Predict the 3D structure of the following.
Amino acid sequence: SWHFLPRPQYIKFVPDVYLRADTAARYTAYESGKRAGWLLDDEIREKEDLAPLTDAQRAQIKPPAAPPAAP
């Protein structure tokens, strides 16, 4: 087998990086998906190559404000 890097380092080829929108557009898309309920925090973090939230981090997240009541 081929080993180019010492363990535990690795190389990850992600073709989506070439198709990624700018940061603001990605964050807007994540917010939209999260508000609609079809995208979870850890799914967003995975797309950004981040570790899942710990329980302590989850406890610090404030729930989104409720939309104003209709008149």
In short: The radius of gyration is 17 Å. Helices lie at 16-19, 23-36, 41-47, 55-60.
